[in-house]
Amino acid sequence: MVGASFVNGTKSIDYFVSAVPQKYAIGSAVAYLINGLTENGYWYQIGLTYDWASFLKGFHIKYEVWNPQGKELFDKNGLETGELDFKEPIRKGDRIELRLTVQNGNVALGAIDLNSNASNQMLIDGNGASTFVGMSSNVATPNGYFTGIMEENHNSRLSPDGNNAIAFVPASGNNAPLRLWFREFGAEYGNDGETPKTIHYYYPTPVGPSHADHIVLEYMNVKEEYNNGTIIIMNRNQK
């Protein structure tokens, strides 16, 4: 996982992403996600996925909600979550707008394909929420919840061979302070078999309006760049 967490709270998260396919040497399942954590502990997520599972090839719009105890509310069988697909197929290179908004105690999730003008949205119970909260001193809660953006991929290699560049561009020109981070779930192999392992790596201070130039965070062969509010995730050898 590669992402950026908002430092301050907000009522709305609105980003552009492009339909960029990813192909790794081993494994699949890639998602470009925006995320909102409400003050009552519920975590909302909507994003563009690519080859998310063997039964869900190509590009799709998916969403999920987690309760404060860490339970997924729309999960059916592991990778299958809620679907918010368009009537028109999403094609490679299409520009997608993803939105999360707190509205009168509920949370509105929406997506628009700016190339085909196809769109879809829904309103989910926000359990009385009034805002998405920021992370003032960390990148996420102990459950892994946060408000911000994330590229997530499920891959059987810790260091993927290929990661086409993907940009998260704030739709409103928002240049709010962010915390850049990497989070990796892997396994250490020893005589006793596999032991789950989580690696956290993050930029030491928030980046924001005072960092209008490039800020780069690198981990293994992947790098995350910040430039005036836009987050770009790419291979380390890409420019």
Task: Characterize the structure shown.
A hairpin with a 1-residue loop joins strand 7 and strand 8. The radius of gyration is 17 Å and the shape is globular. It is built from no helices and 16 strands. With 239 residues, the protein is mostly beta strands. The strands form two sheets. It has an eight-stranded antiparallel β-sheet with strand order 6-5-4-3-10-1-12-13, with no helix packed on it. An eight-stranded antiparallel β-sheet has the order 9-8-7-2-11-16-15-14, with no helix packed on it. The two termini are 20 Å apart.
Number of discrete domains: 1
Instruction: Using the coordinates shown, work out and report the CATH topology.
Output: Jelly Rolls
Radius of gyration: 17 Å
CATH class identity: Mainly Beta
> What value does the average pLDDT take?
83
List the helices and strands and how they pair.
Elements: E1 2-6, E2 12-18, E3 28-37, E4 43-50, E5 59-66, E6 82-83, E7 95-103, E8 105-113, E9 119-129, E10 148-154, E11 166-170, E12 178-190, E13 193-202, E14 215-219, E15 222-227, E16 230-235
Antiparallel strand pairs: 1-10, 1-12, 2-7, 2-11, 3-4, 3-10, 4-5, 5-6, 7-8, 8-9, 11-16, 12-13, 14-15, 15-16
